[in-house]
Amino acid sequence: MIRLESFEEDTLFPLSSLREPPSGDSNVSKPWQERDGVVLTPDYLVDLMVNEAAACHAVAHSQDLQRTITWLDPACGDGAFVLGILRYYKRTFGNEFFRDMRLSIVAIDISEEALDKASSRIAQYVADQFDADFDEVVDLQLVCTDSLKLLSRRGAAIYQGEVDIVVGNPPYIRHSRLTHAQKVDLRRYFPNLYGRAADFFTYFFGAALDALKPGGILSFVTPATYTRNSIGANLRAHLYEHSSLVAFFDLDENKVFENAAVHTAISVLMKDRDRPLVRYLHFSDVQAIIDASATGYTPERRQLRLNSNGTWNIAPESQTNFSNTRNMVRLEDLGVKVRSGIRSGASRIFIIDDQVIDQFSQDVREHWIKPIVVTDDIQCDRTIASKWLLWIPNSTRSPHPEILAYLEPHRSRLEARAEVKNGSTPWFGLRPCNYARLVETRGIVTPDITSTPRFGMKRDGELLSDGSFFIDSQDEVLRAVLNSSVAEQFFRSTSSSVGSLESRGRFRIKANVLRAFPVALDIVNKSTAYDEIRTALGDLNSSEARQSSAVDDIIRRVYEEA
């Protein structure tokens, strides 16, 4: 029995006090869900998570749960995970588990109404599936309180180090939607996790780890982005310091929740630092998740690697390891500058096509308009400017009357820009950019969002639009390296993503990631390997290097030997 006598504010609902299940449908009502912003977890996902948590616990402790096991769900909602745990034991052991083990389940929710709904569903299931001895072997408690305050080591810490397995679907709430009082509490209870933009689910990881025994298992379904984005930096550091990732199931952008669409993943962690191989699965559709839940699954074995920027790379064992920095240098260490494209603050107004440019006189076209490469123009085999930029530096006192006439209908939109409001540019001018002349020269360019590397060579005299990066190098061998499968592996492992990179997702390159790209010393020093690549380019148009398997094979060999 887990004792809660010291925490008098809690309202406890032990199984013996559950009300009789009502006749008819006992599911959570729609009005309650909408009012409390509840996102229910479907049974197939619950069963998959419970099964994986139990399997990881059994492997870690070399036993099959044949003893007293304490489970905890810190965000109970309608009781989906309590029912999932009971289904697991019923399915795995039948009623025989009464003879060999004891089971303790604690489910916490801040909503009394949620716990009332949960109690009805659980009571109905118990009445249908178990005999009268259930209360003697299963200690089930529903606790009405704020689980973060209850579980945190800086809070009540009622379950400190007492729980074997934590499983659940913590609430996803953006930091901007939290109240000031909530933020103050979160900073106090979880100082190592607190961040100005951290999502609410972040703190449930911290609370769960506090509650777990050494070697205990944590299984949550959350947005997958915490493994890569800057918002998740504190969480990643905390988890890496206090636990080991033992399983990661990428649910992609499949709509597993009825009233929410988000790229989610199941993360299973063990409270220790053994760093075992990670059990990994990627699901391309909902049916694949349902099938795995019902009939079983065979995960891959992968490694968790920390990228240079602190993001996580759950990589196949065969993937190139970029941590050997002795034989590589970062792109920025070569003295190469990486710059963003021109940020006009109103691209749809300043960037025009041939149809619009034809409206202007020859004088305007010659002096006030320049060709600009937009993201769709950048390909490995060609980079041709398809658009035009109204070139109005912020130092311009008054542009050509034709330009003013074109911009006047958009004046309110242009005046709303921050750089106009603070006086750094006139309403008709471009956003200040002190490196515009640099990105006008010939050099390597790439879009910041792409499914495969697309590094083209921009011509001299063309500008580059926002949403792209400019590298001031004209080295075709370097561009071939950036377009290689090795580079694709690096960007996929270090960049944040739009969707799942295992399927139809795209990676989003940021300037710090591009600057950190590791260039092998054999390429930097223009050694034999450099000459091999240049020779392999041969009679090919150098921009087709990405399509040449011979070039790609050489580059991969260089990095494998580095």
Summarize the entry for a quick read.
With 562 residues, this protein is α+β, with helices and mostly antiparallel strands.
Please provide a written account of the structure.
The radius of gyration is 29 Å and the shape is elongated. The chain is an alpha+beta fold. The longest helix is centred in the N-terminal third of the chain and has 19 residues. The N terminus is likely disordered. The protein is 35% helix and 20% strand.
Features:
562 residues; alpha+beta; 11-stranded mixed sheet; 4-stranded antiparallel sheet; 24 helices; 24 strands; 20% strand; elongated; disordered N terminus
The percentage helix is 25-40%
Assembly context of the chains: single chain
Count helical runs: 24
Round the Cα radius of gyration to an integer and report it.
Answer: 29 Å
Principal-axes geometry comes out as elongated
Largest sheet: 11 strands, mixed
Structural class: alpha+beta
Strand order of the largest sheet: 1-4-3-2-5-6-8-7-9-10-11
Residue fraction in strands: 15-25%
Mean pLDDT: 84
Q: What is the terminal separation in angstroms?
A: 57 Å
The beta-strand count equals: 24
Low-confidence parts, pLDDT < 50 over ≥5 residues? 1-11, 16-30
List the helices and strands and how they pair.
Layout: E1 11-14, H1 30-36, H2 43-61, E2 69-73, H3 80-93, H4 97-100, E3 103-109, H5 112-129, H6 134-137, E4 138-144, H7 147-151, E5 163-168, H8 180-189, H9 201-211, E6 212-223, H10 233-242, E7 244-250, E8 264-270, E9 278-282, H11 286-295, E10 300-306, E11 312-316, E12 328-330, E13 338-340, H12 347-350, E14 351-352, H13 354-357, H14 362-367, E15 369-373, E16 387-390, H15 401-407, H16 411-415, H17 418-421, H18 436-439, E17 443-447, E18 449-450, E19 456-458, E20 463-464, E21 468-471, H19 476-482, H20 485-494, E22 496-498, E23 506-508, H21 511-515, E24 518-520, H22 521-524, H23 528-537, H24 549-561
Parallel strand pairs: 2-3, 2-5, 3-4, 5-6, 7-9, 15-20
Antiparallel strand pairs: 1-4, 6-8, 7-8, 9-10, 10-11, 12-24, 13-21, 14-16, 15-16, 17-19, 17-21, 18-23, 22-23
Helix pairs in contact: 2-3, 2-11, 3-5, 9-10, 23-24
